[in-house]
Amino acid sequence: MSKNFDVVVIGGGPGGYIAAIRAAQLGFNTACIDEWKNEKGGPAPGGTCTNVGCIPSKALLQSSEHYEHASHGFAEHGIEVKGLGLNLEKMLGRKNTVVKQNNDGILYLFKKNKVSFFHGRGSFVKGDANGYEIKVAGAAEETITAKHVIVATGSNARALPGAEFDEKLILSNTGALSITEVPKKLGVIGAGVIGLEMGSVWRRLGAEVTVLEALPTFLGAVDEQIAKEAQKLLTKQGLAVNLGVKIGAIKAGKNSVSVEYTDAKGDAHTGEFDKLIVSIGRTPNTIGLNAEGVGLKLDERGFIAVDGDCKTNLPNVWAVGDVVRGPMLAHKAEEEGVAVAERIAGQHGHVNFNTIPWVIYTSPEIAWVGKTEQQLKAEGVQYKAGTFPFLANGRARALGDTSGMVKFLADAKTDEILGVHIVGPMASELISEAVVAMEFRASSEDIARICHAHPSLSEATKEAALAVDKRALNF
């Protein structure tokens, strides 16, 4: 006899587990199905983000940054380090511990909120507006039923044709997080978030990193001024970034990978790498969902087709996160998960795509929200800009990290903040002030007149807002 639920969520990543918790909070009898396994075969909810994405990458970025500080930065502070060594096994072990803590935390939250958890792969069997039958293929196969279904099955790394991932020589984000020996030469195809973050980790630990990017511009989605500053700083650190590259044949040998490519000038090259990370985007994961069996509509790119409220073409079936349109960001998935649970309850869940922050956790960090200067120009919007360098910020000087700047873009007439862009220390934390301000439709003068603690990095935000009106005080 199948178990009956009000809401069943397929997928336990950021969108799925948050949707399940919020649905349970709203009084629904809720279940969440997730198939991720840990090394021992046990449940590991949290999706790509927790297991092979956001969480482990930040753990390695932090560890590798500590290593770089110890090997290069501490001397400036009068701290002398002798006999510095790298225990990569322990570093990877710490990363795995951080992941497990997050897995266990989600299982605890399910228990706390009385969410029933099923470990296995969920797929549609049949259903209509009266309810859906969902099969759970795990250690023991079972069937459950639900009035509402939320699909949150995430995404998979996109492979290059003819260069499938073996996670030994040709790596996706999964393999890039588990390299057991620092490669002498590391190739990275794709200068996006994953490529730059993983390239930064292994460069800090001693690899010679070459980044190959097909697009002619660096970080084209980022404000151009910020992107140029970031490229300059990352190049100075030792990341060799090649733009306008056309990739040719990729051949995996016994212990290395060769990549034939043509540079922006049309000159041919062959790169020999110990490891190759391919980070050219991600594809929606609908494998095994049996979408076709129940008539769940996918769009031309394979995403589940949804409207502005995350409703699919099927009654009472919803979809959130990477498997639907919009930015593939964990926090976007979370907001959609909450909104859908609230819509099921008859409330008015809301996600503002214009105030979703973006972060690249390199050093310096890159973070932004809202429109870029090039977007405003293309749209014919009259705007004012203000920038302030961390070089003129007292806290940044004390930290010993004065790279980068904060940039404000505001409407020329109303002064409403249209975009904020940061490259520099702790940009991921600083951007939240801008998100709050834009959510409340604040003006740059509002930020300029708010008292910020001194000395703090956030003063650079205030100063950039002052600079919109050409009245910065410390630069």
TrEMBL record:
<protein>
    <recommendedName>
        <fullName>Dihydrolipoyl dehydrogenase</fullName>
        <ecNumber>1.8.1.4</ecNumber>
    </recommendedName>
</protein>
<dbReference type="GO" id="GO:0005737">
    <property type="term" value="C:cytoplasm"/>
</dbReference>
<feature type="binding site">
    <location>
        <begin position="153"/>
        <end position="155"/>
    </location>
    <ligand>
        <name>FAD</name>
    </ligand>
</feature>
<keyword id="KW-0560">Oxidoreductase</keyword>
<dbReference type="InterPro" id="IPR006258">
    <property type="entry name" value="Lipoamide_DH"/>
</dbReference>
<keyword id="KW-0285">Flavoprotein</keyword>
<dbReference type="Pfam" id="PF07992">
    <property type="entry name" value="Pyr_redox_2"/>
</dbReference>
<feature type="binding site">
    <location>
        <position position="213"/>
    </location>
    <ligand>
        <name>NAD(+)</name>
    </ligand>
</feature>
<keyword id="KW-0676">Redox-active center</keyword>
<keyword id="KW-0963">Cytoplasm</keyword>
<dbReference type="InterPro" id="IPR050151">
    <property type="entry name" value="Class-I_Pyr_Nuc-Dis_Oxidored"/>
</dbReference>
<feature type="domain" description="FAD/NAD(P)-binding">
    <location>
        <begin position="5"/>
        <end position="337"/>
    </location>
</feature>
<keyword id="KW-0520">NAD</keyword>
<feature type="binding site">
    <location>
        <begin position="328"/>
        <end position="331"/>
    </location>
    <ligand>
        <name>FAD</name>
    </ligand>
</feature>
<feature type="domain" description="Pyridine nucleotide-disulphide oxidoreductase dimerisation">
    <location>
        <begin position="356"/>
        <end position="465"/>
    </location>
</feature>
<feature type="binding site">
    <location>
        <begin position="190"/>
        <end position="197"/>
    </location>
    <ligand>
        <name>NAD(+)</name>
    </ligand>
</feature>
<dbReference type="GO" id="GO:0050660">
    <property type="term" value="F:flavin adenine dinucleotide binding"/>
</dbReference>
<feature type="binding site">
    <location>
        <position position="281"/>
    </location>
    <ligand>
        <name>NAD(+)</name>
    </ligand>
</feature>
<dbReference type="InterPro" id="IPR016156">
    <property type="entry name" value="FAD/NAD-linked_Rdtase_dimer_sf"/>
</dbReference>
<dbReference type="GO" id="GO:0006103">
    <property type="term" value="P:2-oxoglutarate metabolic process"/>
</dbReference>
<comment type="similarity">
    <text>Belongs to the class-I pyridine nucleotide-disulfide oxidoreductase family.</text>
</comment>
<dbReference type="Pfam" id="PF02852">
    <property type="entry name" value="Pyr_redox_dim"/>
</dbReference>
<feature type="binding site">
    <location>
        <position position="122"/>
    </location>
    <ligand>
        <name>FAD</name>
    </ligand>
</feature>
<dbReference type="GO" id="GO:0004148">
    <property type="term" value="F:dihydrolipoyl dehydrogenase (NADH) activity"/>
</dbReference>
<keyword id="KW-0274">FAD</keyword>
<dbReference type="InterPro" id="IPR036188">
    <property type="entry name" value="FAD/NAD-bd_sf"/>
</dbReference>
<feature type="binding site">
    <location>
        <position position="58"/>
    </location>
    <ligand>
        <name>FAD</name>
    </ligand>
</feature>
<keyword id="KW-0547">Nucleotide-binding</keyword>
<feature type="disulfide bond" description="Redox-active">
    <location>
        <begin position="49"/>
        <end position="54"/>
    </location>
</feature>
<feature type="active site" description="Proton acceptor">
    <location>
        <position position="454"/>
    </location>
</feature>
<dbReference type="InterPro" id="IPR004099">
    <property type="entry name" value="Pyr_nucl-diS_OxRdtase_dimer"/>
</dbReference>
<dbReference type="InterPro" id="IPR001100">
    <property type="entry name" value="Pyr_nuc-diS_OxRdtase"/>
</dbReference>
<feature type="binding site">
    <location>
        <position position="322"/>
    </location>
    <ligand>
        <name>FAD</name>
    </ligand>
</feature>
<dbReference type="InterPro" id="IPR023753">
    <property type="entry name" value="FAD/NAD-binding_dom"/>
</dbReference>
